[in-house]
Amino acid sequence: MRFHIITIFPEIFDSYLNESILGRALKNKLIEVRFYNPRDFIKAPKNNYRPVDDKPYGGGPGMVMRAEPVVHAVNKALNTVKGKKVLIINFIPSAEKFTTASAKNIFKKYTDIILICGRYEGIDARIDKILKTKKFSIGDYVLTGGELPAMVLIDSISRQIPGVLGKYESLEEERVSSSEVYTRPEVLKYKNKNYRVPKVLLSGNHKLIEEWKKKSS
């Protein structure tokens, strides 16, 4: 699976992608991540300042990302994956909610995912018509940019790839899991109180343990 990130802040992804499970997935070439900066597709004037934003038509606060550099960046990505099964995603707060089912569906159908990370007040809406994007939201809130949603999708989709988590059973959605988990010590003492692990988890009775997990999930 290859992820193509359209962003003016590619360095934001460094720490998240280079650590832990995703870091190993990249090292083992189970996933690949490429970056395309819209600023690189604007001719630099004498002062070398390359604005990717402009004032919105109709007035209003803030600035809007221009369509042209974003489209050029996406086309650069598309030129590297000719003949592949590609999905272009744009993030809109009011769009369809991204879920685990979405991640599974994308993993099954596509080899390359292009993630457009907007900034400011958003991106000129014409990109959705030009690029025929699939629009997703990761929740009922507004963020300062599309980089965090892009990380969410990379993480969620990568988990579906065999080998990324090590074992198929590591996928919470493929087994009975609980929102409550415990580990050592069996009795945790804090401020003169004892906090114990539920007895059923210490019983060794797998049937009862599975029933407990279902109830507490």
How do the helices and strands follow one another from N- to C-terminus?
A: EHHEEEHEHEHEHEEHH
Q: What is the total tally of β strands?
A: 9
The CATH class of the largest domain turns out to be Alpha Beta
Overall structural class, as computed from helix and strand content, comes to alpha/beta
**CATH topology-level name of the largest domain:** Alpha/beta knot
Instruction: Please give the count of helices.
Output: 8
Helix content: 25-40%
Low-confidence stretches: none
Per CATH, which architecture of the largest domain? 3-Layer(aba) Sandwich
Describe what you observe in this structure.
About 30% of the residues lie in helices and about 20% in strands. With about 220 residues, the protein is α/β, with parallel strands linked by helices. The protein folds into two domains: about 1-170, Alpha/beta knot; about 175-215. The strands form three sheets. The chain has a five-stranded parallel β-sheet with strand order 2-1-6-5-7, with helices on both faces. Strands 3-4 form a two-stranded antiparallel ribbon. Helix 4 (about 100-110) crosses helix 6. The longest helix has 13 residues, at about 65-80. About 25% of the residues are buried.
Task: Give a quick precis of the structure.
The protein is an alpha/beta fold and 217 residues long. It contains eight helices and nine strands.
Outline the fold blueprint:
Layout (H helix, E strand, L loop, with lengths): L1 E5 L7 H4 L2 H8 L4 E5 L16 E2 L9 E2 L1 H13 L6 E12 L2 H10 L2 E5 L9 H6 L2 E4 L9 H12 L28 E4 L2 E4 L2 H4 L3 H11 L1
Parallel strand pairs: 1-2, 1-6, 5-6, 5-7
Antiparallel strand pairs: 3-4, 8-9
Helix pairs in contact: 4-6
